[in-house]
Amino acid sequence: MKRYMIVVLLVVIVELCLLFGISLFFDTNLANTIFLGSCIFAIFAFLMSSTGDVLSKSGQMAVFDALLGGYKPQHEKMTLRISPFLVGSIFCFGMYFVLYYVGFLT
User: Fold this and answer.
1) What are phi and psi of 71, to 5 degrees?
2) Of 22, 54, 89, 95, which is the most buried if we count CB atoms within 10 A?
């Protein structure tokens, strides 16, 4: 559990630093960059953590077609694995609200 929390904290720090760097490099509004970037990170993390979605379904169907029906597709069951990347991305989204209401992003 301790290692899991360290990885989550590391993900939050890396995402916030990356978004802060993008904001400085492109000279954009920091609040908008952190909000949109954290939304994109959260959606990407959700897609990477889930199975049974459109991305994995098409991959499994490609294997099914390549093996001429010798592969049993398993996309009927949808699961979501709570990974440190997903939790860190959600915390990064929450950090936007904390930083905005504290007054750092005004």
Assistant:
1) -115, 135
2) 89
Q: Give the number of domains in the chain.
A: 1
End-to-end CA distance of the chain: 35
Count of CB atoms situated within 10 Å of the CB of 10:
12
Q: Can you tell me whether residue 51 is helix, strand or coil?
A: strand
Residue numbers of the domain that contains 42: 2-102
Please compute, for residue 40, the number of CA atoms within 13 A of its CA located in the half-sphere on the CB side.
10
Comparing CA positions, the residue from 2, 1, 20 lying closest to residue 12 is: 20
> What are the pLDDT digits (tens) for 46-104?
888 877 655 566 666 676 677 666 656 555 567 788 999 999 999 999 999 998 899 88
